[in-house]
Amino acid sequence: MRTRILGAALAVALLLTGCSAGGTRDDGRITLRFQSLAWQKESVDANRELVEEWNAAHPDIRVEYVQGSWDSVHDQLLTSFEGGEAPDIVHDASDDLADFAYGGYLADLTGLLPERLKSDIPARSWETVTFDGGVYGVPFLQEPRVLIANTALLKKSGVRIPTPEHPWSWAEFRQVTDELSGDGTYGVAWPLKEPVSATLNLSLSAGGRLFHRGDDGKVTVRFEEGDEVVPRTVHDQVNTDGSASPTTLGSGGSDTLPGFFAGKYAMVPLGFSYRQQIVQQAPEGFDWQVLPAPAGADGLTQGVSPQTLSVAEDCPHKKEAVAFLGFLLRPENMVRLALGDWMLPTGSRALADPALHTAEHGWATGTALAAHLRPAPAQTVRGYPEWKDKVATPALQEYYSGAIRLAELRRRLEEDGNLVLARYQR
What is the pLDDT of residue 377? Predict the structure, then answer.
């Protein structure tokens, strides 16, 4: 335990090396530390350029760019919050904010946000960062899950090509993957190393909710008919039809790309931003396209956990920090961030930018799905990180591999899961 604590402290110290503490300098200049989780070169460049532009226009309020990482960000932030070393401006994802918000580590931005920003971002996006009536972040980037498909294999099979206006149903999707399979090719490869968010978010299309909040405010897990559709589809593709590769279940999205390029898989369900990796890595002449995820009883609806920007409660200059957020998230700047990350902006004005509606690289398909994005089921669930890691991830992995039946998956998600969540709701 002591080793782990020392390791975490060292990680935070290394992250902050070279960065002065936020606050007011002797010369009266305010300094704010902005920890960004941007990792793709285009995204890092866009963030750094915007910080430089802010600093050039605001000499008395300097922002220092701190490079963070998505790897273990929850634990890293928790350690920095508890140690009093948190950055002033925090980049994270909305499904990671609940514990920090309820724990008092993030500032309530309700009275600080500019009206332009509040009105430009839809209410459904603000729901992802609202806890107990307070607003603890600004949702600014989002991405739907889509199907990345090998165009040549689709044409060869003669299957109907879905569009956002006429998507495949989940039943049709299963049939299509069966038709695409054969001659050394699987119809689909599911990269489900981290299966929980993909399963829950896609299940919204079939009416799945999983988490149900009672009149007393407490959340319980109920695995109902709508929640079964996506897990059962994946399970049957792998274990009954043989149309989905069993070896990719423990893989990350990037791990499936070499096999996809080689024609081993006709389709791969991935986040919209993976298109950037495909453009960079695909062999010359490889033809691919973006298709909408299957639709269920609730159409193309799917859950999303937007990327967020928050202000630490300990930040001594919250007003100035929010002013920087207002600059960073101007419509034109939000477009730059979206293009850099190959994602979609949450802001309505930015989303309407022509650069995000081109057919090239499937931008238009992704943008057409933006109206169907809803808060992910786990957004406001306290204890979700523990439930995900200790209960849902191993249960789903075993079910997808065929090691347990659907009834056992239900029991573990409900009985074992509710025991975990109960500890956070007393």
Answer: 86
* HEC letters along the chain: CHHHHHHHHHHHHHHHCCCCCCEECCCCCEEEEEEECCCCHHHHHHHHHHHHHHHHHCCCEEEEEEECCCCCHHHHHHHHHHCCCCCCEEEEEHHHCHHHHHCCCECCCCCCCCHHHHHHCCHHHHHHHEECCEECCEEEEECCEEEEEEHHHHHHHCCCCCCCCCCCEHHHHHHHHHHHCECCEECECCCCCCHHHHHHHHHHHHCCCCEEECCCCCEEECCCHHHHHHHHHHHHHHHHHCCECHHHCCCCHHHHHHHHHCCCECEEEEEHHHHHHHHHHCCCCCCEEEEECCEECCECCEEECCEEEEEECCCCCHHHHHHHHHHHCCHHHHHHHHHHHCCEECCHHHHCCHHHCCCHHHHHHHHHHHHHEEECCCCCCCCHHHHHHHHHHHHHHHHHCCCCCHHHHHHHHHHHHHHHHHCCCC
Distances, alpha carbon 141 to alpha carbons 197, 238, 340, 359, in Å: 17, 32, 11, 20
User: What type of residue is 297?
Assistant: A
Q: What is the pLDDT of residue 25?
A: 52
Dist. CA 31–CA 133, nearest whole Å: 30
Amino acid at 165: E
Print burial letters for 230-248: b (CB count within 10 Å at least 16), e (below 16). bbbbbbebbeebbbbbbeb
- Which residues, including other chains, have CB under 8 Å from residue 241's CB and lie 6 or more apart? 174, 177, 178, 181
pTM above 0.85, yes or no: yes
CB 95 within 8 A of CB 79: no
Choose among 27, 30, 6, 18: nearest CA to 88: 30
| pLDDT, tens digit, 9 for 90 and up, residues 231-277 | 999 999 999 999 999 999 999 999 999 999 999 999 999 999 999 99
Those residues of the chain that have pLDDT short of 70 are: 1-27, 426
Q: Are strands 145-150 and 211-213 parallel, antiparallel or unpaired?
A: unpaired
